[in-house]
Design brief:
Elements: E1 7-18, E2 21-33, E3 38-42, H1 49-57, E4 65-72, E5 75-76, H2 82-88, E6 93-96, H3 100-103, H4 110-121, H5 126-139, H6 145-149, H7 158-170, E7 176-180, H8 188-205, E8 208-213, H9 216-222, E9 225-230, E10 233-239, H10 240-245, H11 250-257, E11 306-309, E12 312-314, H12 332-338
Parallel strand pairs: 3-8, 3-9, 6-7, 7-8
Antiparallel strand pairs: 1-2, 1-4, 4-5, 9-10, 10-12, 11-12
Helix pairs in contact: 4-5, 5-7, 7-8
């Protein structure tokens, strides 16, 4: 007997109009999220992780087009009007953003911002909303919660602001919490505390978790399953334990080789080069210009996720047989020998996303 996923993302594609035609930023992304589970989206900056989250929430700029399917308990979200999505944000799906200072309103007290979500989604009275805010501020480990309620965001430390955002996300006990690199700007001690807090509080309220990060160590700590993204596409997906122990895509293996490991004497190797310009992606496997495992067929490879085991898929030519020993030399020296530097490199793509407006999750 199979259980339907809580969230089913199927063929999700995000495009924006460019001077030479539509530019694809997220390309047929497909994954499922089970109730109470934790899924990691991992990849370098520009791989499409944040874009995927915002497409799920319906928080992309109007000029962007979204196709494919996003179903929450069977309810289709793609194409729904803003009013219908607004009723779900915060109540069924909540967001913990990367930068709480940008997400919190700088001219309103913390308590009033949190209470607004309670009154909007849970229809609580003013006194009941205040009591619930106090409960969740204590729950996320903020001392002197009463005083915190009367402070402005700039009067709190980065770790305290992130705890406030976690409390805000969980106030209505949503089914899904989306975390967009919420620990990136924190030091490692506070980061560990925030990760433990997320796991604990999400387990308490029964919320599933999608955690976006470029840090595989964080994904290993907090998630059961992982989706590895590169240049808007899924490179590999499966259980964290099996994907990290036996990667079946050159990009996943390169990410793992770039991590420092005290048990491995070999120094970590940076991935050579840069992710491609989405306006001019390479043919075939988009990672092949940087890949130490590439073969002659890679530029002509048709993009397709091959099933290689229970819950595991990979879009690499070596997916079924396993990755061979990488061709030498690898690393930045090989890339520098093959790719021109300086003005011949493509320009940075434009910033098509922009910041989220404060309180966007409660509209």
């Amino acid at each position: 007997m199979t259980t339907d996923p809580l969230l089913a993302v199927d063929g999700l594609t995000v495009q924006y109009p460019g001077p030479d035609g539509d530019v694809t930023l997220v390309d047929h992304v497909t994954f499922d999220l089970a109730k109470g589970s934790a899924l990691g989206l991992v990849g370098e900056s520009g791989s499409g992780k944040t874009m995927t989250l915002r497409a799920i929430l319906g928080l992309l700029p109007p000029r962007m087009s979204v196709s494919g399917s996003v179903r929450l308990d069977g309810y289709e979200l793609v194409g729904r009007p803003e009013r219908a999505l607004g009723r779900l944000r915060g109540r069924r799906i909540a967001l913990v953003p990367q930068d709480p200072m940008a997400a919190l309103n700088p001219i309103r007290h913390i308590g009033s911002q949190l209470a607004e979500g309670c009154r909007l989604h849970l229809h609580l009275s003013k006194s009941d909303a205040k009591a619930r805010v106090l409960e969740y501020l204590h729950r996320v480990g903020l001392p002197e919660a009463e005083q915190v309620m009367h402070r402005y965001p700039h009067q709190l430390s980065g770790g305290m602001r992130q705890r406030v955002m976690i409390a805000m996300a969980l106030l209505a006990e949503p089914d899904i919490v989306l975390c967009d690199e919420p620990t990136t700007a924190l030091d490692v001690t506070i980061q560990a505390q925030i990760l433990r807090l997320l796991q604990s509080v999400c387990a308490d309220v029964g919320a599933a978790l999608i955690f976006v990060s470029h840090d595989l160590a964080v994904i290993r700590q907090i998630c059961q399953d992982v989706v590895v993204m590169y240049a808007g596409r899924i490179a590999e997906t499966g259980p964290v334990s099996s994907v990290f122990a036996d990667p079946r895509h050159g990009y996943t293996a390169s990410l793992l080789r770039s991590l420092p490991d005290v048990d491995v004497p070999e120094a970590p190797r940076a991935i050579p080069g840069e992710p491609p310009d989405p306006r001019h992606p390479p043919s075939g496997c988009r990672f092949h210009p940087r890949c130490a495992y590439r073969v002659d067929a890679c530029p002509d490879l048709k993009f397709e996720l091959a099933v290689i085991g229970p819950g595991r898929r990979s879009a690499c030519i070596h997916a079924v047989t396993g990755l061979p020993e990488p061709d030498e030399p690898t690393g930045a020296e090989a890339f520098a020998a093959e790719e021109p530097a300086g003005p011949d490199l493509p320009p940075d793509p434009p910033d098509v996303l922009g910041p989220l407006a404060p309180e966007a999750m409660h509209r």
